[in-house]
Amino acid sequence: YTPEIEPQPTWCPGCGDFGVLKALKGALPEVGRTPEETLLVTGIGCSGKLNSYLDSYGFHTIHGRSLPVARAAKLANPGVEVVAAGGDGDGYGIGGNHFMHTARENHDMTYIVFNNEIFGLTKGQTSPTSPKGHKSKTQPHGSAKTPIRPLSLSLTSGASFVARTAAVNPNQAQRILKEAMEHDGFAHIDFLTQCPTWNKDAKQYVPYTDINESDDYDFDPTNRADAQELMRETEDKLYEGEVLTGVYYREDDRPSYQQEKQEIGEMPDEPLAERYFDGDYEWERSYDNFIDKHK
Ligand code: SF4
Question: 14 CA distance to ligand 1 centroid (A)?
Answer without folding.
Answer: 8
